[in-house]
Amino acid sequence: MEITEFTKQEALRTGIALKEETINVAFTPKLITARHRLQIILEEIGKGEHIRSIDRRSIRTTRRINKA
């Protein structure tokens, strides 16, 4: 599913607003449109090459390891 031009512009404005912030981690649901918006935002702040996906199972496993 493609995102609308309005949504693209909104994501771009969000990226511009966040440009001065330090962002190390960003989470998004599995929805393709949400991932597209996040990609636009991260590319705008110069972190587009750092996009990678993890699932909930990976997060739970990491939490268990960290608790041990």
From TrEMBL:
<protein>
    <submittedName>
        <fullName>Uncharacterized protein</fullName>
    </submittedName>
</protein>
